[in-house]
Amino acid sequence: MKTYPLTENDYALIDEAKRKITNLYEDDRHHVGAALKTKSGKIVSAVHMEAYIGRVSVCAEAIAIGKAISNGERYFDTIVAVRHPYSDEKNRELKVVSPCGMCRELISDYSPDCFIVLEIGGELEKTKIAELIPLKYHRGS
Q1: Could you tell me the sign of the dihedral formed by the alpha carbons of 102, 103, 108, 109, in that order?
Q2: What are phi and psi of 87, to 5 degrees?
Q3: pTM of the predicted model, to two decimals?
Q4: Is there a contact between 2 and 128 (Cβ–Cβ < 8 Å)?
Q5: Cα–Cα dist 134/108, whole Å
Q6: Domains along the chain?
Q7: 115 near 128, Cβ under 8 Å?
Q8: What is the rounded distance in angstroms from the CA atom of residue 40 to the CA atom of residue 115?
Q9: pLDDT value at position 140?
Q10: In DSSP terms, which residues pair with 45 in a beta bridge?
Q11: What is the C-alpha to C-alpha distance for residues 30 and 77, in angstroms, rounded to an integer?
């Protein structure tokens, strides 16, 4: 997988995702925060929404994308998600997490050249969404 060096802006994006989930964390409601940098330079952040029926839950990345689009932003540069530990977990460290399969599809649909910040082997890395969803289905394929 091709990776790229993280920039100061990437670390600021991680910090924004951490701030968002730290401020809004709630057991069984919100434990993942995401931050999205648009091509115009705006930062949009959100938390995921947990539901008792799992398939009704909505990921933080999807909500951030929806917020950005709803505010007129159409092109995305970089996105990152951060997981907050549940209150009963001993390890209290916030961790950068990889987007789930559905979020990978969504990110790729709306911004096929978007960068993703994730942790690989204990190290923060940045890659393009296409690296995480090779051979993506396209209409007419």
Answers
A1: positive
A2: -65, -25
A3: 0.93
A4: yes
A5: 10
A6: 8-132 (3.40.140.10)
A7: yes
A8: 15
A9: 66
A10: 35
A11: 25
Radius of gyration of the chain (CA): 15
- What are the phi and psi torsion angles at 70 (to 5°)? -65, -25
Which residue blocks in the chain are alpha helix, DSSP H?
8-24, 60-70, 101-110, 129-132
pLDDT tens over the chain, length 141 residues: 999 999 999 999 999 999 999 999 988 888 999 999 999 999 999 999 988 876 789 999 999 999 999 999 999 999 999 999 888 889 889 999 999 999 999 999 999 999 999 999 999 999 999 999 987 877 765
Number of Cβ within a 10 Å radius of residue 90 = 5
Tokens of 79: 């996105």
Q: Which two tokens stand for residue 104?
A: 């990978």
Q: Please indicate whether residue 26 is annotated as part of the active site.
A: no
C-alpha span between 1 and 86 (Å, rounded): 31
- Residue 117 pLDDT: 98
CA–CA separation, 13 vs 15, rounded Å? Answer: 5
Which one from 8, 16, 50, 61 is the annotated catalytic residue?
61
Looking at the chain, how many residues does it have? 141
